[in-house]
C-alpha cells in the first residue's frame, strides 16, 4: 500500500491497486484516525474506484470471504451503492447489521469511465471472526481480500440485491499506517 492524498475529501488514504485488465485497476483506499489503536474498534473511511466494466466489487476486512465484514459496492446510474454483507460459507453473502456505512456527500460518483464509492464504516475494524474476536491494526498491516465480477447485481438500485459469483478474488497485506489522519473526525463531518 502507498499513501494517497484525495484533494476532494481531504483524507490521506492507504491505497492498493488490483489489476482488472491490462489497462485498468480496481483501487482500494483506507483512511483511519491517527488516534486509533488495536485495543478497540475504530471507524474506517473506505474508498473504491473501479472501471465501469466492474459489475460489483467486494472488500473482506478479515482477509477471506467467510465470517468477517464485507464491503460490497457497485454503480447504479449516476450513484454508487454500498452494501454491508457477511458470509457464513462460500455462498451469496447476506445483509450484515454489525457494520454500518455513511456515504459521503463527496467522493461518490459515476462518470464515463469509472465509479467511485466513499463511505465511513463503523463496525469494519472489529468483529467476531472464524478464529475469535478480531480488531484490525491501524498502525500496521492487515490481511484483506478482494473480489469482483463483470456481471452486475440483479437489482442495482437496492443495497440488498443479489449478485453473481465473483470472477476474480485474492488477498494482500495492507499497511493501514499509510492512511492515518490526525483530523479524521473533522474530515468526516466536512464530507457529510
Automatic annotation (TrEMBL):
Signal peptide residues on this chain, from the entry's feature table: none
Highest taxon, organism lineage: Eukaryota
Cellobiose dehydrogenase-like cytochrome domain segment(s): 4-185
Protein name per its UniProtKB record: Iron reductase domain protein
Native source species: Lophiostoma macrostomum CBS 122681
